[in-house]
Amino acid sequence: MATKTTAKPAAKTKTAKTRTKPAAKAKPAAKAKTKPAKAKPAAKTKTATKPKAAKKVVLLSGGNPQIAKGDGDGPVQAYLAAIPGWKRAMAERIDAVVVRTVPGVRKAVKWNSPFYGVEGQGWFLAFHVFAQYVKVTFFKGASLRPMPPSPSKDPEVRYADLREGQFDEAQLASWVTQAAKLPGWLA
Q: How many domains does the chain have?
């Protein structure tokens, strides 16, 4: 069965000239208020990346490094590595004497100073860097023989101020051995 299609007649056109109106002035387009498209973060790839820069350690007065509190050898090593000049070598020698003299010594950084102690007995020694010396604190220093030379407001605490070129390793080792056997400071 065939279907019939009907064609529409073509539109009539005028052949005579028609009058046209002049074009109206174009109105400026309204400004669209759109936000710029946000860039999507690039996908993470496992290609070589730049290593993160190590955070620079702030030095406090006298060159004492500002190291976050922490337990263990890691924070103490970070402290030692940040000490400037001759005081670094002095502090590393102090650390080495303590480690050699007291097997299994407990370490921590508290109040921007390394602390050394014996588990269950408390802290027996700490040190702090100053401009002209490294101050070693013996928390029960009044019980040591001979007593470390500098007194404290606390009658039990004694100090040894180690200056550049002054390091009596044998005396320090003797004090460390004695101090580690005493009940320490609990903090």
A: 1
